[in-house]
Write the structure tokens for this entry.
Amino acid sequence: MSRYFFDVDDDGVVQDDQGVELINLHLARNYAVRVAQDCASRHLSEGRNRSVAVSVRDPAGRRILKISLTCVIEDGASAHPLPR
């Protein structure tokens, strides 16, 4: 098992000082995606446009992965219809 650290940039960076022990990088990526989705879901439910990023670090502090999501809500006046 390896310890991975998940820093969240969601209107300011929150650095993970504890980390999470996971079997491999694939599971760390899945964990980072869930964290980013949770942040994005909160912003969307509050009606806010925002970008969210989760950086994954190894125990040496090297960034090994970054997940970025952008949340945008458009009202009917600014939305573009899908092509048929």
Q: What stands out?
A: The beta strands are 2-9, 13-14, 20-22, 50-57, 63-71.
